[in-house]
Sequence to fold (80 residues):
Amino acid sequence: MDFGAPTKRSVTIAGHETSISLEPVFWQQLETAAAAEALPLNALIARIDVERMDGDPPPNLTSAIRQWLLARALEQRSGE
Fold:
């Protein structure tokens, strides 16, 4: 496994730009998930952003993305 340092990217959510720092493996999985759902990357991140607001307290966006990706991977694994 390649343990890369976090990479910062700018994304647009709800009409404003924000920066997100994720390790390359998370960016790759996020891009794969967006393609699988036929969504632009920004749209998937925006959806995760909305979903994270249900938390009490809501996690930061980077943490929410990692948790969303883990939940997705676990769901896929249980479906095998």
Q: What stands out?
A: The mean pLDDT is 93.
